[in-house]
């Protein structure tokens, strides 16, 4: 669900909460779980924890990193603005960085694929049958106003989020029956059903809200009142839609815990919002922005040719990204009749010429996305294995024969721009699907209606990619247009599924589970604000998602995800885009970072620190020597 800081050349979905990025848990034989229940300092999926109970800090931090300084970076999101400080509801566009205000029971280790360790909770005890989990809280936990954080707050938060939170939250918490405060330092979550593997870690990563505060504050409406949290930062000041600044709390109750050692080193973090990417680029080059993650290949290739880069004062680095690459593409809204036939959707894929775009527009920096699970072992390849067939064959009469062969791959061209063969195949598919040539050079259905498709966007920079695509679509008789709207209108229309096609990128976690229902589940297809943009409603996919959630081992999980990948790819629900397995980052040389980057995160705001010596050299105007820690630029 939550994809924080994960974008590509265009944009990402920036969701309101991090709970569905929560990991799954290992259960007993009946549920794929831990054989015997006992309090543990952390939870993991399908394996042992890397860090022992007495660990001092994560391996990817500098435990002695100095505190201080500030960083100004860019605000991002679906609307490139914000009008609320409430990130937990569907309404409004929430400011970036609000996660810094809230602690959870447990926190991710970013060098393990699926492990969390105690923050508010010092231990977690999963019942032998996997149907409940009990957390023991740290008595020193406090909110930023000094009030005690208790099990009552944890239980209250669950009820509030499930009843009044973002619809995706309720969907994720569907099988969580209750949260009960057994005493001030003990809370127990109870589950129902058989697909409970993920639930202990999902609830472990829910933000904890103050019962006293939210009993007096209206939760279900947008608000610009800074919320009360218990996390490492608080809001210092903000200008709605323009900027927001967070300041580090010297009195943060958990600053010396092992999970926080060496983290949260910056005194201030400020997000500045720009509606125009070119203006944003100029802001970083002029020094108004300290750090920018670059999502435009043309800007990365040509936009930083300035003396500050040549002199080593403004650094361009490419950081490795070992997370799943994400599923980015033009998502086709199958709620609309004209896109219900998979032949129509495949035809639209045939027309997109990625090789030409990569050569002419992207400077060869990208790889074509072919799977919903690229950059992982969960991607389907070759013909189905016997284990995959065991999952797929019970639904053989409901599946395309394509599912049982090599998985579908997007077409490949020579990059010349001459896509004639694919254009002919696409037109033939449309005619076979019932669209007939009319007197006006467009294809029409039996009612005489033209086949139209509007690509909805809010960023002008995507015009250079989509407009050539629409021109090729018109060559085969599709009335295709690209429509640019303001970010707020875009956000409203996408939440209400009021579009033909739009670009998004979604990244699943390394151990996907129940959140897959929000992306591809039938219930999500009819839930406003869900991430099922294509409107996928297929009982076979629903059943395969259940197989993923119920997997008792990583091997079973991989088998089930590969089966889902085959069915999704055969359904042609999108025109896949591209990816690169790295973060492109430009920043002024006044920060240092640990020798080890977390494997599954860039670690920038989390582990970097302000370096006074570098800052002094930078302000003096002296060229700074390149550090050996800097990876090569792509």
Characterize this entry briefly.
26% of the residues lie in helices and 18% in strands. The protein has 634 residues and is α+β, with helices and mostly antiparallel strands.
Topology:
Blueprint: E1 42-44, E2 70-74, E3 106-108, E4 115-118, E5 121-126, E6 132-137, H1 151-164, H2 167-172, E7 176-183, E8 186-191, H3 199-204, H4 211-216, E9 233-239, E10 243-248, E11 268-272, H5 277-286, E12 291-293, H6 297-302, H7 307-310, E13 314-320, E14 327-332, H8 342-351, H9 354-360, E15 367-368, H10 386-392, H11 420-432, E16 436-437, E17 443-444, E18 452-457, H12 463-475, E19 479-484, H13 487-495, E20 501-506, H14 516-520, H15 522-525, H16 539-550, H17 554-571, E21 574-576, E22 578-579, E23 582-588, E24 591-592, H18 604-607, E25 609-610, H19 612-619
Helix pairs in contact: 8-11, 10-17, 16-17
Written account of the structure:
With 634 residues, the chain is α+β, with helices and mostly antiparallel strands. The protein is built from 19 helices and 25 strands. A hairpin with a 3-residue loop joins strand 9 (233-239) and strand 10 (243-248). Helix 8 packs antiparallel against helix 11 (420-432). The longest helix has 18 residues, at 554-571. The model is unreliable at 1-36 and 625-634 (pLDDT under 50).
């Amino acid at each position: 669900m939550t994809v924080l800081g994960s974008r590509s050349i265009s944009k990402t979905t920036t969701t309101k909460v991090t709970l569905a990025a929560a990991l799954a848990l290992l259960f007993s034989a009946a549920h794929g779980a831990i054989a015997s229940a006992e309090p543990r300092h952390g939870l993991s999926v399908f394996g042992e924890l890397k860090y022992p109970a007495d660990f001092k800090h994560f391996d990817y931090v500098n435990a002695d990193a100095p505190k201080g300084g500030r960083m100004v970076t860019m605000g991002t999101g679906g609307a490139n603005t914000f009008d609320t400080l409430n990130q937990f509801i569907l309404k409004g566009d929430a400011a970036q960085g609000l996660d810094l205000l809230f602690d959870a029971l447990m926190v991710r280790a970013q060098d393990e694929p699926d492990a969390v360790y105690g923050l508010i909770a010092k231990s977690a005890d999963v019942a032998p049958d996997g149907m409940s989990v009990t957390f023991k809280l740290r008595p020193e936990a406090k909110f930023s106003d000094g009030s005690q954080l208790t099990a009552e707050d944890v239980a209250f938060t669950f009820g509030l989020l499930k009843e009044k939170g973002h619809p995706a939250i309720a969907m994720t918490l569907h099988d969580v029956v209750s949260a009960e405060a057994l005493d001030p330092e003990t809370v127990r979550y109870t589950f129902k059903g058989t697909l409970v593997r993920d639930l202990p870690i999902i609830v472990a990563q829910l933000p904890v809200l103050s019962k006293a505060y939210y009993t007096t504050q209206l939760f279900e409406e947008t608000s610009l009142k800074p919320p009360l949290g218990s996390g490492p930062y608080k809001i210092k000041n903000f200008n709605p839609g323009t900027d927001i600044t967070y300041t580090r709390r010297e009195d943060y109750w958990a600053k010396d815990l092992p999970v926080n050692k060496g983290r949260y080193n910056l005194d201030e973090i400020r997000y500045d919002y720009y509606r125009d990417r070119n203006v944003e680029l100029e802001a970083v080059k002029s020094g108004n922005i300290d750090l920018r993650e670059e999502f435009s290949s043309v800007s990365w290739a040509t936009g930083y040719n300035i003396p500050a880069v040549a002199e080593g004062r403004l650094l361009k680095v490419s950081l490795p990204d070992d997370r799943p690459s994400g599923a980015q593409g033009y998502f086709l809204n199958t709620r609309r009749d004209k896109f219900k036939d998979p032949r129509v959707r495949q035809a639209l894929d045939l027309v997109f010429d990625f090789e030409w775009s990569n050569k002419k527009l992207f400077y060869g920096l990208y790889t074509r996305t072919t799977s919903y699970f690229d950059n992982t072992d969960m991607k389907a390849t070759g013909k189905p294995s016997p284990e995959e067939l065991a999952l797929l064959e019970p639904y053989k009469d409901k599946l395309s024969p394509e599912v049982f062969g090599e998985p579908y791959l997007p077409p490949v061209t020579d990059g010349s721009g001459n896509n004639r063969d694919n254009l002919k195949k696409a037109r033939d598919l449309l005619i076979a699907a019932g669209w007939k040539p009319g007197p006006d050079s467009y294809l029409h259905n039996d009612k005489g209606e033209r086949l139209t498709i509007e690509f909805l966007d809010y960023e002008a920079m995507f015009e250079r990619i989509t407009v050539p695509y629409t021109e090729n679509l018109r060559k085969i008789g599709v009335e295709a247009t690209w429509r640019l709207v303001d970010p707020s209108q875009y956000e409203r229309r996408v939440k209400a599924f009021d579009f033909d096609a739009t670009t998004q990128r979604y990244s699943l976690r390394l151990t996907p589970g129940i959140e897959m229902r929000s992306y591809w589940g039938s219930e999500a297809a009819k839930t406003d604000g869900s991430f099922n943009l294509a409107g996928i409603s297929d009982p076979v996919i629903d059943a395969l998602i259940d197989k993923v959630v119920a997997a008792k081992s990583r091997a079973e999980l991989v088998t089930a995800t590969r089966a889902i990948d085959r069915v999704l790819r055969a359904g042609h629900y999108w025109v896949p885009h591209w990816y690169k397995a790295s973060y492109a980052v430009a920043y002024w040389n006044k920060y240092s970072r640990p020798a080890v980057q977390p494997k599954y995160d860039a670690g920038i705001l989390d582990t970097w620190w302000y370096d006074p010596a570098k800052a002094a050299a930078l302000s003096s105007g002296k060229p700074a020597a390149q550090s050996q820690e800097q990876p090569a630029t792509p």
